Amino acid sequence: MTAPQVEIYGPGYHPSQTKHHEWRTAENSAAHLLPHLERLGRANPRLRVLDVGAGSGTITASLARYLPSEGTILATDISDDILDRARTHAEAQGPDVSRRISFQRASAYELPFPDGAFDVVHAHQVLCHLASPADAVREMLRVCAPGGGVVSLRETDMGMWCFWPAREELEQFRQLATDVMVANGGQAEGGRRLLSWVLQAGAERADVEAGFGTWCYSAPQDRRAWGGSMIDRLRTGQMRDKGFDLGLVTERGIEEMIRAWEDWMAADDATLGIMNGEVIVKKK
């Protein structure tokens, strides 16, 4: 008998890690899903959505606004603490959002739901943190309803960050973040490998829509959200500690990267573009 997969979120849940996650919404991080959500909702007022690895729940809450009159969304994560944070966020959006959302601790490797239990299964930046992404996709496909249900996935790619102004220290940060992700058992090339994982999980290529979407951090508030969080990671948290443990960085290097992020946040012409692989699987 095969031992069950153990799911661990390597970066941890320190605010330095999760703060910038709360910038994410359905509109800037799940736009490829929204037309399918609206289409399915028109046909089924009781649409059932599962959000796997929901984290702080900002995408979950914004997806809830697109649900039909009696639609519901179940948010899962492996951390009770982060689910409490997601619950608090949902309640702050008001009763029309919070009444639609429930929360349950669950692993992506072993979703505790029957086959075909959900019309839509969504996961965002989950697979890149897993040692066996295809196994998690296989579980998501299992709990997705046949006959028209969809699985929606989106994963970043650490090799597809584009900075301006160009700074060697920012590239050094990207490499540090990449090396720490890999050391944690994650998948730094998740965006470009996403389609491959879906096919390994058993999906037929004809049933898969694959593409790429972007994040752009350019407006002042967006630069502060991203750059401030990256500085926090350099000052505290798992990435800093792991970087020192593995000999990937020095204290001087940390300070130089912090100054580079501060300069980037202050520059009116600063931009950061990040590519994300996106997939929609239509379940037969």
Automatic annotation (TrEMBL):
Entries under Gene3D superfamilies matching the protein: Vaccinia Virus protein VP39 (3.40.50.150)
Keyword Methyltransferase (UniProt): yes
Classification via Pfam families: Methyltransf_11 (PF08241)
Keywords: Methyltransferase, Transferase
Domain of life: Eukaryota
GO BP, one annotated term: methylation
Domain Methyltransferase type: 50-150
The keyword Transferase is assigned to this record: yes
Listed InterPro entries: Methyltransf_11 (IPR013216), SAM-dependent_MTases_sf (IPR029063)
Annotated TM spans: none
MF-aspect GO terms: S-adenosylmethionine-dependent methyltransferase activity
Family from the record: Belongs to the methyltransferase superfamily. LaeA methyltransferase family.
Name this polypeptide is given: S-adenosyl-L-methionine-dependent methyltransferase
